[in-house]
Amino acid sequence: MTQVSIVIVAAGRGSRAGEGLPKQYRKLGGKMVLTRTIESFLAIDPTANIICVIHPDDMALYKAATEGLELQEQVLGGETRQDSVRNGLSGIEHLNPDYVLVHDAARPFVTEEVYRGVMEALESGADGVVPAVPVTDTLKFVENDTIKQTVSREHLYAVQTPQGFPFQPLIAAHEATIGQELTDDAAVVEAAGGTIVISAGNSRNVKLTTPDDFKKAEQQIMMALGDIRTGGGYDVHRFEDGDHVWLCGVKLPFTKSLKGHSDADVGLHALTDAILAALCDGDIGTHFPPSDNQWRGAPSDVFLTFARDRVLARGGQIGHVGVCLICEKPKIGPHKDAMRDRVAELLEIPASRVSVQATTTEKLGFTGREEGIAAQATATVRLPLGDT
């Protein structure tokens, strides 16, 4: 059986993307870019061995991005991209695969067609394969902001990754070109005397570099998440003796507490049920039965992040959530912004997509008699088309 290893180069700083993070660790549709890149390859070829080359300062980010994924142990990058790839190759030398694919971490949309095209060309005997797309824009040669010449597009291609090579020849090519400044692995093999062929690239397989790239990528994900669902949740907790209440993840000093098996955060309970309802995935009692003592006194953020992760596991995204707290006391208004921020933090979405409201029942009913608090919640979830 043909053995394939994939080296994902994730040691760059990527500062042009903004937000103060290397671009491979920025969130894209609720997941880090690197996570999406790895998951794309695992979906295409679950038998491939994947190793990531990372910056030594990014270990915590890398661990967060790869939690639960089966990968080879990461290696650290070098001073240049060539150094980093060479380190990655050394990290899989014990596997001695037949072929190795080298891929940019910031290309999360690699498709099976691109992958198969590279593999087919490799198996036909190529020294190296680069996915590429024809250049379609008109090209100009410019000096000092002045166009000097229109350049013919004929025979011009924009290259992408993953770039594929027989494993041992790629190692030899890297060793033979140490000290040369080469921009990709195809150039390394060419400089060592090899011949590179192209396979079909894909316009979706873009490298994320600028803030505008990320905006377009978010739109691309949104277009794929066409199954839009709305779920609702409702919860009630009565008051008991105490000195605080938990509401929407915020601890409020009060003359009473809410009674419940967990911390009785009525807002987060209703919101958890709303998300699970959108997924048609039971309710909070299904997954966290009150008969199970491990949840006694548990913080309700455990339940909400569980529901969030159920959405992400299905390739989905939480688009908007809203909570309405129904009580006479305590006063919710002074704490709304803190509640929105906490819910946004737990769901890993912008606070601009979180609504927290409050109302009374004009002294009517159990909330009007100040016997407890009720909460209603809604959640909008986007799932991939065809999700069942």
TrEMBL record:
Region spans: 2-C-methyl-D-erythritol 4-phosphate cytidylyltransferase: 1-228
Cofactor or coenzyme needed: a divalent metal cation
Annotated catalysed reactions: 2-C-methyl-D-erythritol 4-phosphate + CTP + H(+) = 4-CDP-2-C-methyl-D-erythritol + diphosphate; 4-CDP-2-C-methyl-D-erythritol 2-phosphate = 2-C-methyl-D-erythritol 2,4-cyclic diphosphate + CMP
Site (Positions MEP for the nucleophilic attack): 153, 207
Chain segments carrying region 2-C-methyl-D-erythritol 2,4-cyclodiphosphate synthase: 229-388
This protein's UniProt keywords: Isoprene biosynthesis, Lyase, Metal-binding, Multifunctional enzyme, Nucleotidyltransferase, Transferase
Coiled-coil regions listed in the entry: none
Keyword Metal-binding listed: yes
Residues where 4-CDP-2-C-methyl-D-erythritol 2-phosphate binds: 235-237, 261-262, 283-285, 359-362, 366, 369
Pathway(s) annotated for this protein in UniProt: Isoprenoid biosynthesis; isopentenyl diphosphate biosynthesis via DXP pathway; isopentenyl diphosphate from 1-deoxy-D-xylulose 5-phosphate: step 4/6; Isoprenoid biosynthesis; isopentenyl diphosphate biosynthesis via DXP pathway; isopentenyl diphosphate from 1-deoxy-D-xylulose 5-phosphate: step 2/6
EC number(s) per entry: 2.7.7.60, 4.6.1.12
Family annotation (NCBIfam families): ispD, ispF, PRK09382.1
PANTHER family, sorted: 2-C-METHYL-D-ERYTHRITOL 2,4-CYCLODIPHOSPHATE SYNTHASE, CHLOROPLASTIC (PTHR43181)
Function description: Bifunctional enzyme that catalyzes the formation of 4-diphosphocytidyl-2-C-methyl-D-erythritol from CTP and 2-C-methyl-D-erythritol 4-phosphate (MEP) (IspD), and catalyzes the conversion of 4-diphosphocytidyl-2-C-methyl-D-erythritol 2-phosphate (CDP-ME2P) to 2-C-methyl-D-erythritol 2,4-cyclodiphosphate (ME-CPP) with a corresponding release of cytidine 5-monophosphate (CMP) (IspF).
Similarity-based family: In the N-terminal section; belongs to the IspD/TarI cytidylyltransferase family. IspD subfamily. In the C-terminal section; belongs to the IspF family.
Name used for this protein in its record: Bifunctional enzyme IspD/IspF
